[in-house]
Structures
1.
Amino acid sequence: MKKSYVRYLNLALLIVLAILILIFLYIFKLSDFNKPIPDAITLPKEVQESIANLKPQKVLNVPILLYHYVEYVKDEGDTIRKSLNITPYMFEQEIKTLEDDGYTFVTMSDLADALDDKNNLPSKPVILTFDDGYRDFYTDVFPILKKYQVKAVAYIVPNFLNKPNNMDTWMLKEIAKSGLVEIGAHTMNHAYLSDLPLERVKYEVEESKKYLEKNLGIPVTTFAYPNGTFDNQIIDVVKKAGFKTAVTTINGIFAQDINRFFLYRIRPGARTGQSLLNLLDNPDAIKY
Ligand SMILES: [Zn+2]
């Protein structure tokens, strides 16, 4: 009796151990699978070297905020979306914080014009940017922008349009016409540009501009590097395509004439109130 009890106990322990190993493997594999492609967070060395001896003629203090999803995430298992998401409530609080503190919401075109001495920016400018053209920009962000009459910039990937997770063409047309949202290009296919041959880079950059301009009937003059990756050659393609500014995912405030094609951005996350204002005053204090 006692012997068989021990045998069963051993068997039970083995089963528990096997289950634990399976759970471990499952979690490990899952987290690996769900890991977002890391954004570039520092200026590439060759770009750094190319500007090392340049003296900026114009320096502006314009925080550019970077958002992805703003929604109530329905699928609790969607860890990528959850990590990039803030709730519409939080977003509205952030807008209120910035408004109450005297910030004025401007666009990338306003920034380009200021860099070109064509206009002056208000005393406390801020730019809201949204990457990828997710559907929640139309359903959750746009109503808040309209409520507060706040301007923003949406970087669109044409070949993502009309997919379940992304805006339909009619939604894009509506936001583009609203006078509140500037449309920027984000390549045709959300391409990881540093991995592509030059011809392909040109296609992704130039076609996304042409496509959006043709379909929306507006000039598209700002560009966002997918995953923030770029180098001197890619910057050159973006410049020659006729863009006036380009944004990266590098953390910080860095709006000078010499780096208008690799502008830094700040991820506010769910910060509201004083912690958001502190971040805008000192973005380098936050490490990602
Ligand atoms: Zn993107």
2.
Amino acid sequence: MDEDEFRKQFMKKSVFRQASSLDLSYVPEKLYCRDEALKALIFNFRRIMDEREQPSVNCLILGKGGVGKTCTARYFGKNFRTIAIENDIKLFLEYFNCINFRSKSKIIRELLAKYQHGSGRGFSDDEALKLILSQLIREQGYMLLVIDEIHLLKSDDVLALLDIAETFGHQNAKLSLLLISRSKDWMNIETERILSRLNEKIILKPYNFEESMQILQYRSDLAFKENVIDNINLLAMIGQIVVDHKNMRHGIEILRKSGSYCDKEGLDQITADIIREASNDVYPTFRNDIIDQLKDQEILALYGIVRSLINKGEPFTLVDDAFEEYKAISENYSIEPHVKMSFRKYVRQLTQLKIVASKTVRIEDATRGRHLEITLLDIPARKLMELLEDIIEKKFGT
Ligand SMILES: Nc1ncnc2c1ncn2[C@@H]1O[C@H](COP(=O)(O)OP(=O)(O)O)[C@@H](O)[C@H]1O
Ligand SMILES: [Mg+2]
């Protein structure tokens, strides 16, 4: 490529007005169809502004994947902070996703590092929390902690977080919690005691067709230039897919993929075929939003699983076979492979994250009697392999 050609590539027109508005972490200016949830959140948390003793409030948002839990919580947090500051309340807003912070300790350490500038090493969780809480009082501040995918923490950890006001005294706890979880996963950690510490459980239902259309219209207006989608029937196609899968993320992904396809092919409009093609490329239960946030060892373990699935050409593989592939790939990148017991742990974690499914099965004529079978959910092994190769090359390639 010479310089002229290089420049030409930059001159190419794009269908996007603002491509980043379709990133999964993007929080839109307006939130449609979640007024009830927002009103419930406002009703609960406004007490922090209205009451002199600034109580500790704990709410939980529940719902299936892709119903807008994260988006609603972030939208609420952002706007609540603005209003709080207008009311002279120094509100610190912190968002944690438990995919990145898998225990209460990790979250507390991170907070301590941020607010106390120390490593927090040598402190117990309670000591560290005490430091954070006294800092808040000293600064006359208040903290709203949003914790996403909370089911990845142990039940005890969740209870301990919800119990902060009880443990340290209500007047000392200038801190409230907004927790988020998928309904099904939440059932595994919910206990009577946890329930009794929640001010409200807010359940988000999947969007119906009209709601999906309203949201898609808004999001596509933000993302695309005029006339890129010039026919309401095209949006209706996507709206129907969203409703079929009960998942808005699916719709946003289709918009993003369709736009990228146009840019790559130099087209200036999205067509029905492009949408069909893009929707074939989106897997309803596959969590493409978390795949690049996995830990190094989990990525390698997943790669081992995928490679052994492809080698076998069967719908499931066994933990021993996947382990062999995992060792090979680790060595390829000069990474010391962990022992099989750890590997099993990574497989369990991937199962818990719903990236793979695994189950222990009995086998008739084997001496050991049981083994662990692993399968993928709805993404084909080859597709996942392509994704992982990219990530691994970025992470470990030289
Ligand atoms: N009411 C809404 N208005 C605009 N965009 C939305 C709305 N609800 C969901 N989305 C978008 O749909 C996608 C999935 O939402 P998300 O909050 O990640 O779902 P969940 O956390 O429930 O899995 C995100 O890209 C989000 O921005
Ligand atoms: Mg979410």
